[in-house]
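Morning. Coffee machine broken again, so started the prediction first thing and wrote up yesterday's gels while waiting. Chain of 294 residues, entered below exactly as on the submission form.
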Amino acid sequence: CACSDEICRRDGCRLVRNEHIHQRVSGTQLKVHHIVDDAKFLRLFGGENIKVDLPDENPAPETLKPESIPLKILFEDDVILVLDKPAGLVVHPGAGIKEGTLVNGLVYYFKSLSNISGSTRPGIVHRLDKDTSGLILVAKTNSAHIHLANQFETRSVVKKYMGITWGEWKPISGKIEEPISRKRSDPTSFTVSTRGRSARTDYEVVEATRYLSLVQFLPRTGRTHQIRVHSTFHGNPIFSDEKYNGGLNRIKGFLPEISKKLKPSKRNETEIIDVLKHYQKQKKLNLELSLSAQ
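Came back before lunch.
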């Protein structure tokens, strides 16, 4: 199996998942992802004809409604841009959400975005939860998208999160290494479970009070809601995170004067991407987001 300069084995696996690769069997084209879903992998024995249909680098489809949503751009060149996503902004359309997302803003301001991630996620290489603020990397070309996605997959991108959590952490630094799986009772939530996928979060307390702590998190894996789940498992849920036991119910036992000061508004969690290797220039970019009160 030969590789071009831009498409190699890891890239091919990603294209399989995104339905761009098909296998021709007995003259009939079958989507490889159906085979992958059933067998978990597709073994090639040689002689197979694999067709790769790379999507054209055209503007996002018209089904996405362009919207004049304010975007705070921290870095931009011909192939990538880095945005400061505020808390409360959904990254891309999904179930029940078609408008008002970061992607709707992107297609309003930019004519050319990568489409490797699908028609409703142009330019999106990774995502942040709705109520998490932080840096978002956006790819303008498919080549840049593949290059950046590889860095996330090999974990050569160093991601740091700063979060305000409930309570004091003991010890003040360490790691939480517990598997995470989707809750059977609520498919939108996740929990620590022995049947889950391996997950590790390193942490260090930056500042602590009797009621709250400012903590730096370094996720070593990329599970959905990982920091939120691990913090709750440790007994220190993210401040104002209603979904994972970090909301208003924790204030009820405090004195009234303390309750007023602690009343949360938005979940306090911010992502900082510390090290990123630029696609074309092949050098590291240090991108830091200053924390501001919300």
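Confidence is low (pLDDT under 50) at residues 22-40. Going to sketch it on the whiteboard this afternoon.
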